[in-house]
Amino acid sequence: MEAAAHTVAPVTGRFAPSPTGRMHAGNIFCALVAWLVAKSQGGRMVLRVEDLDRERSKPHFADEVQRDFEALGLTWDAGPFFQHDRDEVYQSALDALDAQGLLYPCWCTRADLHAASAPHRGEKPVYAGTCRHLSERERAERAASGRAPATRLMVPDRTYALHDLIQGDYQQNLATECGDFLVRRADEAFAYQLAVVVDDAAQGVNSVVRGMDLLCSTPQQMYLQELLKLPHATYAHVPLVVGELNRRLSKRDRDAALDELLMRFKTPAGVIGHIAGITGLAPTTDPATPEELLRDFDLDKLPALFPDKVQILWR
Ligand code: GLU
């Protein structure tokens, strides 16, 4: 079993927004915890705009997201870094994996994947390995079809374990609970898992705070770190802020988007204070700046703040 190493000083956290819309209450909550975790340890923050998905990422959202962070007092010390101009770096990571004989082309469509995989504990579908086992002839036939393949990384039958600062102990066997995963998509975009691992290391990030939905990606990222000889980070996966009926808040939820929040709570401190109050970060929903919340923030008490570690109802 592989265990994540402990963070070494200086602590470097990150904001890693995808510029696909305005910030919403869930993103703000996650960013606030990331900032408090880093700053309470005398650390620094990096801002990385995750604009890997060129179709969904819009430059005006990248600008707005920076203004949103600034307005909320969620300051960063390095960046902004962008993913759109880092293809060469991602390509050399891909080459390093290829040199280890771990990559193969995959022609499975979304529909194939759906039909062939059994979702595990409702978490994520496990790739059945269909294209891993193609014969040379089958591979040549598919290549001749002219349809571009994606690139998948073979995973070992190994369990990766980590101690998450909020979720506690978590482990996942990559072969049985994940399967070979994408490192490059058929449209040639580098996959999130690869880019995030390369960028976190390049930007010195050793404290990752993000939504609970990404906990199941962490073992994949630890495996990539090992293959690319990059250090592990410490992890804290925050509960998701959800709407009624467990619906995930999205950037399309007007009621929870920052411009609506500013109308409802009047000031950035009003927004931060409300989010801190309803999530358990602060005892009241009174207006507060991140700096003010930092004074009473105790990293050791972080897990106890969230009785429900999976989700928090937006109100
Ligand atoms: N860019 C992702 C998001 O906005 C976060 C990815 C990560 O934190 O690793 O949801």
TrEMBL record:
Motif ('HIGH' region): 17-27
Family matches, as InterPro entries: aa-tRNA-synth_I_CS (IPR001412), Glu-Q_tRNA(Asp)_Synthase (IPR022380), Glu/Gln-tRNA-synth (IPR000924), Glu/Gln-tRNA-synth_Ib_cat-dom (IPR020058), GluQ/Sye (IPR049940), Rossmann-like_a/b/a_fold (IPR014729)
Annotated residues for binding of L-glutamate: 14-18, 50, 192, 210
Note on how the cofactor is bound: Binds 1 zinc ion per subunit.
This enzyme's EC code(s): 6.1.1.-
Residue positions binding ATP: 251
Domain Glutamyl/glutaminyl-tRNA synthetase class Ib catalytic residues, every copy: 11-258
Binding of Zn(2+), residues: 106, 108, 127, 131
Free-text function comment from the UniProt entry: Catalyzes the tRNA-independent activation of glutamate in presence of ATP and the subsequent transfer of glutamate onto a tRNA(Asp). Glutamate is transferred on the 2-amino-5-(4,5-dihydroxy-2-cyclopenten-1-yl) moiety of the queuosine in the wobble position of the QUC anticodon.
Family: Belongs to the class-I aminoacyl-tRNA synthetase family. GluQ subfamily.
Record protein name field: Glutamyl-Q tRNA(Asp) synthetase
Species name: Adlercreutzia wanghongyangiae
Species classification: Bacteria, Bacillati, Actinomycetota, Coriobacteriia, Eggerthellales
